[in-house]
Amino acid sequence: MKSVLERIAKRQQTFAQHPFFEFLRNSQLDPRQRLAFAPCFAPFTMGFGELNRLVFREEPSTDPIQLIINQHSREDDSHWIWFLEDLAKLEWDTVLNLTDALKFLWSDATQSSRHMIYELYRLTYKASPIQKLVVIEAVESTADIFLAATAQVARELQAITNREYRYFGNLHFAIDSSHSLGLSETEEFIETLQLSDEAREAAYEQVEHVFQLFTDFFEVMLTVAQASEVKSFMSADINALKQLSPRPRPLFTAANEKAIAPNSSGKRLGTYLVEAGLLTAEQLERALDEQEKTAKRLGEVVSDRGWVNQQTIEYLMEKVIMPEREQSLERSLSLVG
């Protein structure tokens, strides 16, 4: 399996040069223009949740590979919720009657998105665990490139609108980058899986097929985004917003520490874990009770209980929570003056 993973890594490097990602990374373009493909992305995103629940996942199972897939599928099957939130924030939440909505979802505009998810179903339905794992690894490698690019766009857009974009932004990117598939012990186990020559060649073909699917898919998404008419933000407005941004200053001083404390923490770790679908509200309540009794950190409690792995918590803290807390501090400082 190690050679298959190496093939995926090599294809990922080429895939990252796709013109679609160059388009997304072009900060000279209006960020809403760069995300204008979002409505046509809907069948893929919504279908991907069901792909995880109905095809990737097989329970009960004692197969160690299938158990890894099952855990991964639970981490990946509810991101469509963030997608719907982002559509509304991007002002694509147009009121349509049911028949018009169905016409759009099965129109030529969304054909490539539907084809994408149909092909993934075809590749993995009733497939062996190792075959599904190969497809998942390839899909995740494309997602890494896609989400890194959209996270940049979302950060730029959030600076203008003051809205958080959870699907296209940092949260999704952070969660996706810290999947259980990426745990060192899981990676080591997958690398040591032995494939016959025939199975290895079949895996290579699967990898090539998945990357070609996403290459073709994103060519269409690029065309859609470039052709969409999006009302641009006025450059003067953007410049005005930049001028209003506070100048850098020390985050803590004796004079301002007390004033900024109530507003500096941002959302708590538990809130993020629930919003990300990694914890239920009931689990969070139980964890908070235990935290109060034991004085442990919340992350330590949920990790010890096996609800969220420690690597995911650390990644979320580093890539999402701490940066947002720093931004919150800076905004508070600008009010303190």
Automatic annotation (TrEMBL):
Name of this protein: Uncharacterized protein
Swiss-Prot/TrEMBL keywords: Coiled coil
Organism: Oscillatoriales cyanobacterium SpSt-418
Source domain of life: Bacteria
Coiled-coil ranges per UniProt: 274-301
InterPro entries, per the entry: Haem_Oase-like_multi-hlx (IPR016084), T2SS_E_N_sf (IPR037257)
SUPFAM superfamilies membership: EspE N-terminal domain-like (SSF160246)
Keyword Coiled coil annotated: yes
